[in-house]
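We store sequence with structure; for instance:
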Amino acid sequence: MIYVIKFLYSFVLPPGLFIVLLAAAGVWLWIKRNKAPAIGAFAFALVLYLCSISAISDGLMRSLENSYAPPSKADGDVIVVLGGGATVDTPDIDGVGNLYGMAGNRLLTAARLYQQTGLPILFSGGKVFADSGNEAEIAKRQLIGLKVPADRILVENRSLNTAQNAAFTGELLARRHLTRPILVTSAFHMKRSVMDFREAGIAVVPYPDDYRVSRRASYALNKWSPSSAAMDSLSACLREYLGIAASALFHR
């Protein structure tokens, strides 16, 4: 019973509420014999519903996340971590500024890999927006807080997107004579990242993390409830697919 209540409750808040309102508008227009606008309202409600359920977004996310599997052995000479956003002035244990969730997950994976391998960590990411923090500088402070020695941390703090991550990281790797980078980024982001690094002339060992969905598909009732989280996931997937298409088109 509790799952039915949760399902119904999802139509009380956006985006479920907007779906209900559109469907209600369609019914009202149909009663008023305005069939064309009614069909438009029903169609818009259906599209919004399909874009806001995990049954759809999880499948797209899974297709990206399954592009690469973590290697059984971290065989390389440096751990390269890609940023994913940061706040500039939020309080932290030993300073101010924090990495966003997915960037924090990537950082944690890198720190754990360091504990296993002792390889240096290169964090790539700059200050993307005026109100965001410098990702690499924040990551360095947090890595030191996780007991990674400062002399084992390299920072690339200029890049604003994945292509620049690859280009600027390549320059730093060349100066340090590092040739076998283990690339750590979110699993859904790995395919595009590998393409951009390849375009920059860098062969990487993909080490995906920050998984968003389970490997096994599920179609329980909660997967059919509209949610903003599912819409955010769908947006992330579409952004990746557009990036992959653009990379394939312009880098032939």
About this structure: The two ends are 54 Å apart (CA to CA).
